[in-house]
Amino acid sequence: MNEYVEVEGKYRVICDDINKISYFLKEKDFREEYRVVEKDIYYNHPCRDFSRTDEALRIRIRKYIGQGIRKTVLTYKGSRKVLGEGVKAREEIEVELNNWRKMNNILLCLGFQRVISFVKERIIYRKRDVEVTLDHVYGLGRFIEVETRNRSIIENIYSSLSECLEPVNKTYLELCLETQKCRDDFDDS
Amino acid sequence: MNEYVEVEGKYRVICDDINKISYFLKEKDFREEYRVVEKDIYYNHPCRDFSRTDEALRIRIRKYIGQGIRKTVLTYKGSRKVLGEGVKAREEIEVELNNWRKMNNILLCLGFQRVISFVKERIIYRKRDVEVTLDHVYGLGRFIEVETRNRSIIENIYSSLSECLEPVNKTYLELCLETQKCRDDFDDS
């Protein structure tokens, strides 16, 4: 089986000057693709505990900055499976919706519970098949995610910016639940 | 409280000549609004029995005949509540989706079970606030539904067509489950 497997590196930005990262990316010919503000609402299942089964159900409301476009997506994530050293995969199914409030209400009627919601600003940079995302999670801090098929690219970025980055293994959901610091300031209109 | 309450009459068409109904409607100045083919897929909840709680969860895929438009909707229906003599209401929340297969897969991953699916052709007629729907439910037969705020209109239509109509209290879901005759012939492409 020669499936396409994405590798992902995720880091907390620990230096004060976050411009270091954007300068570095521009120097390496990364191009800013777009900016978004995303609100994520996570739900728990009416009769099983997603924190035990390692599943997730999320409504994401995304606004594209400067474009006035808005997109709402319902996402199911299955439990993480280790495919190989450092490579994890999880089933992910996404469906686009025309109204997040109605989907939220359907989920509540079905017995799903809202667990947490938080907002982040994202800047997405790309260079060929490498995607770098700079996240500002409100209340939690700044993070960088690197996605590519080539693990050495992730390692190079990390070693070039090592004084600025600290590896993170947890999802934002897990970090927000742990710290209870995440904020949900979002203009729903 | 002076809420807008729709009254609905539902009848099985028992005469062989279904043109009687369309002639009658045209004579009474009803206008054909549009024709659709709908596939409905019903689900049961992972940990409660919707047939006991009188709830419903449905994906409906609707094709507008002759227009090439397609619409997919997820609908939750709460249990029926009797508001007054002959007037029932149930909460109904609808959200539009861009992909029914993905929503179906999310529901299956969440433990929902597919109960039944069936297809019907609908012709929707209207005259002011009165909506008359002529349904051909594949495998089950032909039905007519009248929706309006004015109960006497429903009674008039029924008495004018009484040799052709037989009142029905059950939903198509209930009739399909009971008879197991409904068919699901639908071009999903």
UniProtKB/TrEMBL annotation, chains A, B:
Whose protein is this, by species?
A: Staphylothermus marinus (strain ATCC 43588 / DSM 3639 / JCM 9404 / F1)
User: One Pfam family for this entry, by name?
Assistant: CYTH
Give the top-rank taxon of the lineage listed in the UniProt record for this protein: Archaea
Q: Which PROSITE patterns match?
A: CYTH
What lineage does the source organism belong to?
Archaea, Thermoproteota, Thermoprotei, Desulfurococcales, Desulfurococcaceae
Domain CYTH, by residue range, is 4-178
Q: Which residues form a coiled coil?
A: none
> Would you tell me the protein name for this molecule?
Adenylyl cyclase CyaB
